[in-house]
Amino acid sequence: MLTNEVTKKSRNVILALLFLGWSLGNLDRYIMNYAVVSITGDLQLDASSTGIILSAFFLGYAIMQIPGGWLADKFGAKRILLLAVIMWSIFTGLTAIAWSLTAMIVIRFLFGIGEGGFQPASSKIIATIFPKEERGRAMSIMLTSGGIVSLIVPLLAAYLLGTIGWRMMFIIIGSIGAIIALLYWKYIQLPKAEIVEEAGTNHPTTKVNFKELLKTPLMWNLIIAYFCIYAVNWGLVSWIPTYLQKNRGLDLMSIGWAQTIPAITTIIGVYGSGFIIDKLPRGMEKVLGSISCAVIGILLYLMFTAKTVTLFIGYQTVVSIFIAFVITLLPVIVLKKLPSSITGSAMGIANTGGQLAGFVTPMAIGFMVDAFNGSFDAAFWMLIGFALICIVSIVTLNDQKGTLLKA
């Protein structure tokens, strides 16, 4: 279809529905970081086991990224979107009946498999119905769901865990997913033809072989950059509640209030980044992206050496802005530099790096904390190392070589 065949009103309706789906997916992921405090008590788990639970979702999610993107390109984004929402809703609800560490790991892994096709499919829809000059804004709106949810979750989790408990909480979240799936089935209507005319050209996009995509240098830079920035992001998100409770002496409600501050800056950072990126001259993405990663590394050091909780939250607030920029920048590069006909596959490949980081990092931090008698210092140094690697991967981005990358 041609991008201008979809009316502005239809695009906005679809964008709003996608936003709801991204919000629900983020809700489950973020709220698990608070629920796990109660879960580990009920199931009598140590830090290493907690890390495995937090990582199990990301393993399934990472495994499904490439197949999910390929399926979206092959069979249509709406079908994969629906399948993803239905599957993750089922396994979110089943989280409530987990009776052991093994059961929890299996359920969370299958939940990750279910959700794995959602981001590639929704990204393909954005690339298909929005012209290039609006894709950064559209993607930033999607990504603000994470910031909004991270703002709500600390207090929501504290309330729900203290009233209805973690098991009933996951049943309710799964039920909401079923409602969203129904809305998608009824209201997301895409034209049948999926031949996309790129903005600024007079011919349809050429189909690209999957193997050719994997040979593209840009893709490997993006995989590494995705891994590094999401290692930092999920390392902080998954362990900060536990860190503030055990190492800084805060209770769950105090943690909830404290985390609203960086959550607000994340929303502002992601939303603003989309508009900034859409207006950047060619080549400036690498400059601002690498500078942001350097600042992230410095702020991580200041965080774990902070003498007070107030300073820690202050540094976390600032670092969240720069993380938000890089997390917004990377998918927009995919949407703008690669043909829309392979956006699903490309996003799936790149995002595999990010979700592998989500699998590895929480588990690695758990083992480090046990190995160093409860200290998080080694974990913070690991995250700083990832920020430095991210600088290199962004600086060396090259979209001049390879036939796929001509914008």
Automatic annotation (TrEMBL):
Keywords: Cell membrane, Membrane, Transmembrane, Transmembrane helix, Transport. Residues 14-402 form the Major facilitator superfamily (MFS) profile domain. InterPro entries: MFS, MFS_dom, MFS_Na/Anion_cotransporter, MFS_trans_sf, Sugar_P_transporter. It is a multi-pass membrane protein. Pfam families: MFS_1. CDD domains: MFS_ExuT_GudP_like (cd17319). The chain crosses the membrane at residues 12-32, 52-73, 80-99, 105-127, 139-160, 166-185, 218-240, 252-275, 287-306, 312-335, 356-372, 378-397. Its main location: membrane. It is found in: Cell membrane. This is MFS transporter. It comes from Lysinibacillus irui.
